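The step that takes the researchers longest sounds almost clerical: writing a folded protein down as plain text. Below is the pair of lines this work produces for a single protein:

——
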Amino acid sequence: MASKTFDPSPRSYPPSVSFVRRVGPIADSAGNGDTFIEIEDWLLDEASAERQMIDLLVKLICRVKAARSSVDRFTLHIGTLHPQLVGFAWVWSADDGFCDEVRVTDAAVDSDAYKLNPLQRIMETGETIRRAPNELSAQAEFPIMAELAAAGMTDYVAIPLSGLDARNVITIATKADGGFGPAEINSLTRLFKLFALHVQRHSELKISENALGAYLGYGAAARVLEGAIKRGAGDSIRAVIWVSDLRNYTKMSDVLDPADMLLLLNSYFEAVVSAVTAHGGEVLKFIGDGMLAVFPVKAGAAKASRAAVSAAREAIARLEASDRKLRIASDPGGCPMLRAGIVLHEGEVFFGNIGSPERLDFTVIGAAVNEACRLEALTKVIGRDLLLTEAVAHHVKQDAEHLGDHHLRGVSARISVYGLIN
C-alpha cells in the first residue's frame, strides 16, 4: 500500500484557488534584533536580489517578527495577466509558521467569498480597511471576520499597495490585546510602501512569464526571458516531435458557422494540449488546425518516447470524450466527430529564434520536423489516428506493429511506419 504524504498543517482553499507550494515553518525570531529602520535598509538594498516572491515575503516576515511586531497573520495578493488566472496570493500564519503560495482563477471573482471580502472593496475603492474581527458588525459586513475571530485575531488591516495594479494588496492581523498600536501600524505602513516596489517588480515579471508562456510555451518563454532573443539564438536538441492535425477541418468549416467552428477548435486544442503538457511535452505553435510540440530527450529517448505515446493515447481518449459532449449538446446528427491525426518522430532539431529582425518566432526546425509533417499526411492514407516512426516505436515494442515502409514527399529514403496495437 502506498503511503500518503503527511501534511503537518492542512489548509483548505475554495475550488477557485489552487495550491502551488509551501515554505516553512518559519522559525520564531521575535525580538532577535532587527529594527524597522534596518528592514527599510534591507528593502532598499539586499532584497532586490531575491528572485522568487515567496522567498522575499518569508524573509520580510522573519525580519518583521524579529523587530517585535505583533503580526500573527500575513497575506499578499497580486493581480496578473493570464488567460485563466486573476492573480496569485501568499498566506502566512504564526500558528503553524508556514507560508503557502496559491493561484487564483478567474472564477474567484464571481464567488460570494470574493464579493463579500475586504479585497473586493479595496480593489474597487483603493481605501485601507481596518476592522476588529470579534465585532458583530464587522462579521456581518465581511464574513471572513468570523473566521479570524475564531482564530483569536483581535485586529485586521488590509492595505492597498501603491503601483500600477490596483489588485496588489497586503493584509495583516494580530492576536494582541487591543490590536495593533499606532506606532506599529505607522512603521508597517512605511515598510509596505517600500515593499510595494518589489511587489510591482515581481508582478511585472510574473505577467511577462504568463503572457509569453501562453503564446510561446513555458519552456520557450523561460529562454526568451533569460535573454535568448537574438535571431539565430538557440540550441540543437534531440526530441520526440509531435505533429497533429484535426480531421475533416475543411468540411466542418464549410458547414459550421464561425462561432461553432471556434467552439470546436477550442475543444480540440484543449483536449490535445492538456494531454501533451500533462506528460511533459511542450506545445510550440498552432497552424490553423495543426499543432507542433516536442518532448525533449533529457532523461533518455526511451522516457521521452513513452511520454509522447502516453500523451497521444490520452489525447485520443480526451477527443472522444469531448466529441460525446459536443454531440449531446447539439441536435441529432450534429457536430462531426472530433478526431486527430497524430505523428510521433524522433530526431535532432534546432530550438530557437528564426524570422526577421522585426518579427521573430521561437520554434523548432530541421529535417526531422519536415519528416514528421510529411508523415502526418499518411494518417489519412493508412487510416490510423496515430503513427510512429521506428525510433519511437523501438521504445514501445510490445504495443507497436509495423505498417510498412513508405515514401514521403521530399524525403529520399523510405521510412518505416508503425501504429499501436489496439
